[in-house]
Amino acid sequence: xxxxxxxxxxxxxxxxxxxxxxAQIQAIIVGTLQELPIIELLDFCKRKNLDGKLTxxxxxxxxxxxxxxxEMVTVTMDGYKENQAFDTILGWNEGKYCFRNSEKV
Length: 105
Fold this sequence. Notes:
Elements: H1 3-12, H2 21-25, E1 28-32, H3 38-47, E2 52-58, E3 61-68, E4 71-77, H4 82-90, E5 96-101
Antiparallel strand pairs: 1-5, 2-3, 2-5, 3-4
């Protein structure tokens, strides 16, 4: 893991080598659903009180969960109603995710 990414993750998760608050605001977490299943990923966002958006992709499909300090506000996916999008994404075992903090100060 690159040192810069490691430091950002440690700061974001409250570990040692923390950086400035502005680095935390711009934190990005990426990975695959094979490493961290969607249920565990959603639980992680809740436990860490994350504020921002979690984008999950599976092949050509993409959905986005919006969080406000750990609480999921909504989920969107082209062509799907909110409940349909949520149920569809929960079924994904493969794909990628990216969490970006909101840029509020």
